[in-house]
Amino acid sequence: MLECLRMVKKYILTCISMVITVVLVGCLIILLDEKIQEHNKKGYPQSGKYQITVDIFGPDYSAYLRNGKAFDDYCDLYEELNTDFRWKYVSEDELYAKVESGDVPQECFREAEERSGGMYDGYVKVILATEDFVKEHGIVIDKGQLFSGYTEYEISPCPVWLGGLYENTCEINDLLSIDIDGIVYPCYVAGFISQESCYYSETENRMISCDNAVFVPHFYNMENNRECRDFLERYFNGIIYSDLSYEEVNNAIDNLQSKYNISSLTLIDTDPTKRFDEWSSRHSKMSGQIVRSLERITWAIVIGAAGVLGMLLTTVMRREMYNLGIYMLCGRSYKYIVGIILSFVTLLLLVSDFVLIGICQVSEAGVSAYVKIHAMLIILWTLSSLGSTIVTQKNDIMSFVGGKE
Amino acid sequence: MSYIELENVKVEFGQERTFISKRRKVAKVVALNDTSLKINEGEFVAIMGKSGCGKTTLLNVVGTLLKPQGGAFLLDGRNITDMNDCELAKLRNHEVGFIVQHFALVDDITVEKNVALPLTYRHIPKKEIDKKVAEILKRLSISDKSKRYPYELSGGQKQRVAIARALITEPKLLLADEPTGALDEETGNEIVDILKELNAKNRMTIIMATHDKEIALAANYIIHMKDGKIVS
User: What is the pLDDT of residues B71-92, one digit of tens each?
Assistant: First the structure.
């Protein structure tokens, strides 16, 4: 098919345009396919928020308190939960700590009358928070700054945020001394949470006010003493945010359990379908609609591309009719002439196919992307071949060489 | 038996088409209307007539580029109407040479490649093709133009290239459709001299369509056409 290669050489810019058109359309299909897969995967309630808890009790708890290795395992597990790229782990715990020194408004102290004997005298609500915690719950800092990156509990004083009620008694940079589970942390006021802030606690299943709380950066103490062991256990209670399905997260947690031999680690699907029934059904419906729209867009693009290719091909054929007529004069058959055009189309689509397969491999596209790309190429090939054959038939090739009657 | 025999040949262009369930009539052009013609081997025939009278269609039918819709056409005793597309293409490649008004040269290949084109379809070794091309270019006095592209040549030179390409396969039949139409008088005469020489020396059958009476006089006899029919 020397004539076909001659055509490619002669119309190289048009050929490049045609290949680029097909490749761009292919890329769009790959992209849309990724979006469709994402939506299919994200369809509620397969992914979302999962509550994770550790509930050590009875003899296990006694063993945990006594066994040094168990503590190390828990520390490692905690690290792994925090650093695993498959999810975002937000520890969520509300505790009460004693303020040893500092100006605390009366309404922030836990009501002493709750327990006779003043067991909670001087205790305030402390929330252990990370940057992720703040972002997830949409908590706004009114004054001051984030204590981002603060993980080294040894560095003192430790920055804290205070709830809105503290604004009457404290100022930024004021010093506080807080006893958390037997360890006294010197703290300074880094900022204030905006008034009337609150957040929904997945673990407690209720709204928690931020106004009377002290937000302490989420750290844990690796000292191997009883207080630290108690403290560490608390930290496991939290929420995992992940795009993975419940089954996938559960499997990962099972693997961690086996790895560290911690049987008390459990994952609870927060079951959003029950809690957010309406939202969930709306979300699923929207997902379906988006997927359908994306699929419609994909096929509209394929039809548009076929139109563009058809126009480019018709332009090439009109210009080439004279030469095709000459080939017939010299002894080529009509079938051979049609064969030249089909080879031209096939060659361009094959080049596009190779480029698209390369792109699919680089972008690690799924099987459905490969199938869609090849379906598109087959549709384009069929339409282009039919179109070019009809154009060749309609135009009397010889009239381009010898004139019409 | 004559070399070319056409009997009541009919060719029409345009036909009735069905378009979204409505019958749309397209004007029909009767290009050849019961045309009968006999030409013996080695004759030089000129066809004259007004534009659109059917000269080109007659040459296309004789050159096997167009199948008649009615009648019979025998070329050297073979019934052309029974042959398929591939057989006709092979016959065209081996036995028929074409020369047309606007030269019909492929612009993006050199003169020698244009001339060699019909031979490349026969899978002949390249050396043999090169030898034949060199010979024919020399015979037509355009050897020095072999590496040139058609757009670099004058009208006369282009027509010589077209003749060289038509002759390279040593055809029995040469069809010339207005071969001097795009040339000045002097160059046109040169081309006609070449055709006369081919007819005289090689006993090649030549059918030439032309408007020009002077040019037509070079033929053994002249056929006049009108409205798709041979009138004299």
Answer: 999 998 999 988 998 999 999 9
